[in-house]
Model the fold of this input.
Amino acid sequence: MTPATAENTVKCVVWDLDDTLWDGTLLEGDELHVPDANRTLVRVLDEHGILQSVASRNEPGPAEDRLRGFGLDKYFLHPQLGWSAKSASLRTLLEVLNISADSVLFVDDSEFERAEVARELPEVRCVTREKLHELVAGGRVLPRQVTADAARRREMYQAEDRRRGHEETFQGPAEEFLSSLGMTLRVRDATEGDLDRAAELTRRTHQLNTTGITFDRDELAELVRDPGHWVIVAELDDRFGTYGTIGLAVLSTGPEWTIRLLLMSCRVMGRNVGTALIAALARTAAAHGARTVAHFRPTDRNRQMLVTYRFAGFAVASRSEDRIVLTMPDDRIPVVPRYVRLVTEDTAAVLSGPTQGVTR
Amino acid sequence: MTAQNAPTDEEIVAVVREFITRLSGHPDIEDDWPLISGGVLDSIAAVQMVDFVERTFHVEVTDEDLELLNFDSVRGLAALVTRRVAA
Done:
């Protein structure tokens, strides 16, 4: 097997149950016992943002009961319990979790099962539990840095599953659906702890991205310290849980505040929260006596963000070959959609504007 | 484009209404209903509307055209198409 390297990060550990997660065989009526080392490892992996699941040949009902009884059920996403081949269970997990085979560690005491998976899915790393403990202890599994979003990754998956169930069964107009979510958008100054996630967002976000400027961690750290810039991050929650840190904006401040970059993760596509984020920025600028300017660099994928700026009230002020400059007219205060509760650190600025209805 | 083969205003309204009906899943859309501000559609729908009218009527929707007014009702979108077809 290949050890985990930077390019070969472990994103998910899939556990067999009998004589792997617990000692004993459920079907044989053994007294089952989860070794403390396993219990601790499950928690440590979870806290480091590594997803976990189960692939076990067992009756689903009794196996789930035992996991619950041990207080471990919440840690495992989409447990695969039944009689299909382990490779089939793993294929299902790769699909529902949307991860690649080379990011998975499969833990099983049975040499037969490990060989079956290795044959069918050669990129999956197959290990015994002893080997798993050894790899973790040797620093080959856990990431060196854990962002706040990574630490709650499993909860975010679970929230998204519940949310999707709601979305699939919801009938009614778009706004009623959005209202039913109970969304809260939190906009705050970026801090040291946000920089890894913020840099990741600039690299990964293409569709809901106004200019496509990428910043690495150090550049962002410098902008956060620079009094001539304002860097904010946005987090979205709804009644199903958190979406994590989903938005980033970089503004240069002064007599005019210019939004050099504004992006939102595609996790929040269709939630219309871009409008609320723009409103938060423009209102804060207005509270500081500045008008808001926005840059937009068109790509073949980001027109949605131009629509968002234009619908929020920005007018096209000038354009060059690859850049459009938009300005917010002095008499416009951008509107926060009524289905989003906006929370900012600069509450005075936000309270000065309406939550719905165009103001002139 | 000559007067003979240019679509009439009524034809434009009918095509736009049919598209909005399909997009919203709402069977009896009225021509002056506020679609986005009224919460029938979300703003992502505006991008789909732009793609649709550009393909269907072979017109270009400019960045200046991306006003809420032009996308907030069947009538508004049809009027935009009429202006662009005539241009």
